[in-house]
Design brief:
The protein has 132 residues and is an all-alpha fold. The chain contains six helices and no strands.
Length: 132
């Protein structure tokens, strides 16, 4: 049974919320150690991880709310693309995500790029603001 096309805006919102929550936990882990990361972060955090953690934490929360979805998702997508090439593709010059363990950040890159184009969906603060 196919999913009706009329559900697309709600499913877009669901994708945004789940991706935002998952993204936000990376920032929480960097700043508060919860949930614990399988790879420990250096203490103190270097500026690049502070920047990434801030984008993950604040950007993730804004994405969950669906507030300023397009610009936030665009920034998050760019951060993830940079992160893929700095932390994964450059590891032993292994470009393939399966080899360099970069599948998750690569998926975030393109999910957020899609959200930057598609917006927040029906269940978002952006949708409420546009009706006002």
């Amino acid at each position: 049974m196919p999913i009706p096309a009329s559900w697309s805006s709600q499913l877009l919102s669901l994708l945004r919320i789940v991706a935002g929550l998952a993204f936000m936990q990376h920032g929480l882990s960097k700043f508060f150690g919860f949930p614990p990361s399988p790879i420990p972060f250096p203490s103190p955090l270097p500026p690049i991880l502070i920047t990434a953690g801030t984008i993950e934490l604040v950007g993730g929360a804004l994405l969950v709310l669906g507030l300023f979805t397009r610009p936030v998702a665009f920034i998050a997508s760019g951060m993830c693309a940079v992160g893929y090439f700095l932390a994964h593709a450059g590891v032993g010059m292994k470009f393939f995500p399966l080899v360099n363990q970069g599948e998750t950040i690569l998926l975030y890159t393109f999910i957020f790029l899609y959200l930057a184009a598609a917006g927040g969906g029906a269940w978002s603060a952006d949708a409420l603001r546009s009706k006002a």
